[in-house]
Amino acid sequence: MASDAASPARPTTIWSEIRTLAASPMAPFYVIVASVAILVGVGSLMVLSASAVIAQATEGDPYYYTVRQLAFLVAGVIGAVILSRFKPAVLRGLGWPVWTLAVVLLVLVLTPLGISVNGNRNWLLIGPIQFQPSEFAKLALVVWTGAVFHAKRTRLHEPAQLAVPFIPLGGIILALVLAGRDLGTGLIIGLIMALLLFFAGTSMRILAPLGAAAIGLVTLLIYGSGNRMSRIQIFLDPDANTDLSSQPMAALYALASGGWWGLGLGASKQKWGGLKTGAHTDYIFAVIGEELGLFGVLLIIGLFALLGWAGLETARRSDRLFNRVVAAGITGWFLTQAVINIFVVLHLLPVLGVPLPFVSYGGSALLSSLMATGVLLAIARDTPEARAFLAARKKRSRTRMTSVMAATKED
User: Fold this and answer.
1) Could you read off the pLDDT of 21-37 as tens digits, one per residue?
2) Beta partners for 115?
3) Burial category of 64 from C-beta neighbours within 10 Å (exposed 0-12, middle 13-18, buried 19 and up)
């Protein structure tokens, strides 16, 4: 006689639970929110710790940079929330307007309205407002590319349709950034363009020659600048007794002295001059390693890994080309810039002047990154699974409200 007893359930493991959670409709959305929130929180705390010394010395107020960072953080969060509620169709319609705006602002940088910082002419001063248009150009480039590729989605298998107008018009943004002598940001924008072509399905037969041409251009730009050549020489010989080599070496000293758990929050020694003006900007990862140790370093890397998974999972689940390209492009931007910044601090790349997204001090960089996060969240809400889940939740909410109102009327 067959037994009616139910078969024992298989024991669940933590990995099966994680896989179940990861497969849920809104998992990428919440992982993006959580990872960015923690990165921004840690970044704000470390900006306070890393900038207090130089802020007191130069501005007479140890909270000067922290207050400014928090102001941009509030504005960025508001912008991210607003953009996250946009329908992708609305974002797609903004493609050409934001490309035009980005080009206009980058052209203005080359006029008397533009100002130079550390030898790079990449800032725009309009009245009391000073910002860096190239940071916002990254987001404009991604959204515009998504709109262009979506409009040509049935013809992208043709190389000519894929390249035009993407390469010449995207190249205008890149050329304007390079005209301001900002090679670091130009390199990021060039890599974003390459990633967008890759995510659109471009074959390596096309990407390889473009990559070779890009390497040749970067080589020419380096050889044409004495400052850039000195950075390469310092990278090859970090022990060179020069003023420029002290900053990369200080970053290595900071990471080496952090140990497992760090010296403690606020206890960094290298921020007292070894890292010069980069302790709270491009070299904040070194201060994290010194004050929070290997734990802090792995925390930052792990958060970017989670953000990368959530962004690429959003792209994979999307059923519209615009959504896939934009989600993958924004994710590629964040990860590429984070990897370059961390590699520079670890002395695996020459100094490029690239901030760590969400963590380094910089109002333009933080604001543009949070706005891009809002766009990414809007797309994460628009995957087929997310649309079905949100529609069902909205329907259940309406049903419960109708039942309560009906019961009240009968009483």
Assistant:
1) 888 999 999 999 999 99
2) 123
3) middle
